[in-house]
Every structure is written in C-alpha cells, then in structure tokens.
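Handout, section B. The chain below has 409 residues.
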Amino acid sequence: MSLPKFHPAIVVVAYNRVESLGRILGSIHRSKIPPNTELVISIDNGSNSIIEDLAETFEWTHGTKRVIPHAHHLGLREHILRCGDLTEEYGSIILLEDDLFVSPHFFQYSMEALAFYCDAKNIGGISLYNHQYNEYAHFPFEPIFDGHDNYFLQIASSWGQAWTHTQWSEFRSWYGQSKVIQEEEKIPNAVKLWPESSWKKYYISYLVAENKYFVYPRVSLTTNFCEPGTHNIINNTLQVPLAMGETKYNFSSVEDSIAVYDSYCELQPEKLKELVPELREYDFECDLYGLKELRLIQSKFILSSKTYHSIGDSRIPAVASFGLKMRPMELNIIHNVQGCVFQLFEVDNALVDSERQGDPGAFFQYFYNERKFIPSCIVSQEINRVPWVNLVVELMNRVMNKIRKSLHL
C-alpha cells in the first residue's frame, strides 16, 4: 500500500541568538532537501536587529524563503503556538528551534514519518530527536529495542519535531479548553513546575489526557547545543549522536511496538506483560526511576525502585523483586535478574512514599563509573595537564568511593 506524500515546510524559531541562528540555518541548507521546499524563519519581537538582517540575507536555494518578524514580543509558548498554526497553511511542518543542529537526512526521515503516522489516532507528533536522558530523574533513558527504528513516549519533543495539520489542530482544540495543569494529573512533578512560558508542559498534559504518543527515532536527526535562552543554561547533556547515513525506515505502530513509554519514561505495563507472562495476573504500574507519587497510582500494584512502609513504619513485603544489572532496566524484570532494586508492591491506603527517589547507590553504580561520573570537560587529555584538575578528579573519586562504602556497594 502506497503512503500519502508529505512535503513539510521548515519553520525555524529565532530569538536573540545570532550565532545559533546562523548555525542551524547552515546545517539545514547543507542537508538533503528536495526542490520547492519552503523555509520560514519566525522571529520574536525583542530580538536584536542583527537577527532579522541575518534572516533576510540568508540565501536559500531549495525553494522560497519567508521571514516573519513579529511586531510584539510573544514569549516562547505563544511563539511556538503561532508556528504550529502554520500547519493550516502548509499542511505539515518541521519545527526547529535555533539552538539545534540537524542531520543531513532530517527531511527524508520527517517525510517518511509524517506519511506513516498521518492517520494514526494515537500519535500526537513526530520527534526528530532521540531522547537519551530522563530529564526528571537525571539519569540516562534507554528504550527497549524491538526491531523497529522508532519508539513511543508520552513526552512532546521540543528539540526538533514535525506535525501534520490534523495532529496540531487536535492539540489546539484541546488546548483551547484546558489551559490549566491540574495537581492530580499523572505527569511528573517537574513538568507541573515548569514556567508558564513552556508550551511543552501543556502538550505533555494533552498526550496523557488523550492517550497519545510522540514518535521518537532510535538514531537522532537533531542534536541540541543547549545554549542560553528562555529555559536553558549551557551544558552538553542533550548532545546526542546524529544520523549521518541514509536509511529506509522500518516504523511500527503503537500496537505492534514493545517500546511504548509514559510521561515518566516508564514502560507501559501492558507491554511488559507481553514479555513477562508471570506479571499478567497483576494490575500494576511501572516506576523504575522512582518518580511517581503514590497518591496518583490507580492500579492495585506498583513496580518501583522505591521502598514502601505502612503508617506504622513497618516495611511492606514485596510480591516480587529484581536486581539491576542488565540494560535497559526493564531487561532485569524480563529475565528475572536476582536482587531487590526493583520490587512489586501492593498498593493500599496504609502505604506511604519513601522520601527518596530509589536506591541512589545502585543507580549511580549502574549508570556511571568513576570516570563517567566526572564531567567530560575535566577528563579530556588537554585539560588534565592542569594540576588543579587532577586534584578535582582525585577528590571526586574519593567521594564516590565513600558513597559506595556507606551504601555497602
């Protein structure tokens, strides 16, 4: 069966970052772009005049170029909403903020993904970015590999995304009725605390409320320089490897995929049950990162890295327990790795949350060794020649060793 063809406009969001804008425009122009592709550069008011000059003078040889200088300052949320509304005019768009950098093959991926998922009612958008970091837990995120080139998350992508007009208009319709994030919503606390300038918090709320997902690629088509802006400070946490070779994508539907995750980066329990028949009799939620609030759990059981106690402070016995050795984390449950890092508890009114996220020692030992724990800028060969850096490295290694000893690791 032939898929419908999409030829999205490329929309670049710009605000007051000259070097960033020049870099993203250069990376887009050097990419494999088909003829007659429109480039839109949307500039929020309050940017310096150099931004508009750069946009106006930038030479775009793949089609027509359109510069939209907004007369009033919109702020990030309203600016993204205005850009998303361009789907009505173009049918579909690829949205790129100015601190991103694209793979040479980002456009082909976007066209294929838009075509494959355009009729899927449970898809709310297409990410160009491969989500490798759980920004709520501050640990890596590693989706299960199920043989496909994508996975699904109930997290909107803000580091390169594509929408059809239908996908965007359905969100817009919901957004027009639900502008307040409720305390009882099952989204991470960190998301609820994001500033009102965030459009992404509302899109995550929408995905959860409507049981929709963003499609994510396993190899990223964008990377993020995470430069100073409305929400960012400088760091390299969000830099990821880029796809540098052309691929014919093997996409899956939500129904056919195993790698389907909620807004906490937790595997949906029905997918885990497909791989672990012994768990099918239990009504449970996954909480391997240990971020979920017990008061929001509606299932009878919870599979968590937290330990739970009754009001009388007696420890609740686990129905089942698992260690933490295999990657990704879910494989420890699938292959019944012995240990007690993850435990299946029955939820009742007597349970109270553990104050900590989970076992910090086990997680640090699992995700990092001493050298990985030290920031990359410190362990580079060039900077290691500086004497004070060697002292910092030694001190950090000693701290890690003390943590291990105190936790009996």
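Note. Residues 269-346 form one domain. Compare this with the example in section A.
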